[in-house]
Design brief:
This protein is an alpha/beta fold and about 300 residues long. It contains 9 helices and 9 strands. Strand 7 and strand 8 form a beta hairpin. Helix 6 crosses helix 8.
């Protein structure tokens, strides 16, 4: 039996559907999905099996025009993820077409691909008519030499199996990189923090877009098989703390309940989740916070 294994980088603009595609490929929720752009900070890897191939997905932060240190570190992580991969998949939203951001990515691709195969995945195909799709496919393939083009809906699952099957065949021959039952190589502490951050993002919408982060401070395995998880939500100002807590603590209670339920489902056991909110005005400038998110502080310079 010939086994194959390798890394696949999913790249694209923020909100192109990379996290949704990763979760669909892996069959479990390892990368947080929200309607807010730039929610994926760390290079989360999800592991999928297709026949004799093990596909290790690098879910990179969305590529966009960076303005702050955190933005620059995220963009550096995205290109770094692409440069380290065996195969690259560029995700483009069908209804948005070739935006300024997509053009910027196409310009940067030759430098990071260096002869490796790049597949084009046109996502959210249910939002446009077929003639528009054909025009977009032709336009993109004229701008870059894609090895293959796939029409998909990551949310509904259309075309995802075909993409995964093609990727499985394109990976280099070799032994599997992870145990068969492992779906993500991020520590559970980080995945748990991401789940809570997702719930905060969904709940707060525009109020605190990127000015908070969550860290798992303590993880205690209990004798009854449950886990106690203590997390800290760092915000930049006192006023933000009030927003996260909500009127009579309603917001934090709702976030805690939603995060705990998802963690219990993910872990398959009881979870006792305790959240604290702390003000750290300069967390965006602290190297430690970046390493927690799997980003390189230096890349933000």
């Amino acid at each position: 039996m010939t086994t194959r294994a390798g890394f696949i980088a999913l790249i694209g603009e923020p909100n192109a559907g990379k996290s949704t595609l990763l979760n669909r490929m892996v069959g479990a929720k390892v990368s947080i999905v929200t309607h807010k752009v730039q929610t994926t900070r760390a290079r989360i890897r999800g592991v999928a099996i297709d026949g004799d191939s093990q596909l290790v997905f690098v879910d990179t932060p969305g590529l966009f025009k960076p303005r702050r240190r955190l933005d620059r570190a995220m963009v550096a992580a995205a290109w770094g993820g692409a440069a380290d991969a065996d195969v690259i998949v560029l995700l483009v939203e069908a209804h948005r077409g070739v935006t300024e951001g997509v053009e910027r990515i196409l310009d940067g691709l030759p430098e990071v691909t260096r002869g490796r195969k790049v597949a084009l995945a046109i996502n959210k195909i249910d939002r446009v008519k077929s003639e528009q799709l054909l025009g977009l496919t032709q336009d993109l393939n004229e701008r870059f030499g894609f090895a293959e083009t796939f029409m998909i809906s990551a949310e509904k699952g259309h075309g995802v199996d075909a993409l995964r099957g093609w990727l499985a065949q394109e990976l280099p021959e070799g032994p599997w990189l992870y145990p068969e039952d492992q779906i993500a190589d991020l520590p559970m502490r980080v995945i748990a923090a991401e789940m809570t951050r997702e719930k905060l993002t969904l709940r707060l919408h525009q109020e605190l877009p990127y000015q908070l982060t969550v860290e798992t401070e303590n993880w205690e395995e209990r004798k009854d098989g449950s886990a106690r998880i203590d997390q800290v939500i760092y915000v930049m100002r006192d006023g933000h703390k009030g927003i996260v807590l909500g009127n009579k603590g309603e917001t934090i209670k709702a976030v805690s309940k939603a995060a705990r339920e998802e963690l219990e489902e993910f872990l398959g056991r009881r979870v006792h989740l305790f959240l604290q909110v702390k003000v750290r005005p300069n967390w965006l400038e602290e190297a430690e916070r970046y390493s927690e998110m799997g980003l390189d502080f230096k890349d933000g310079n």
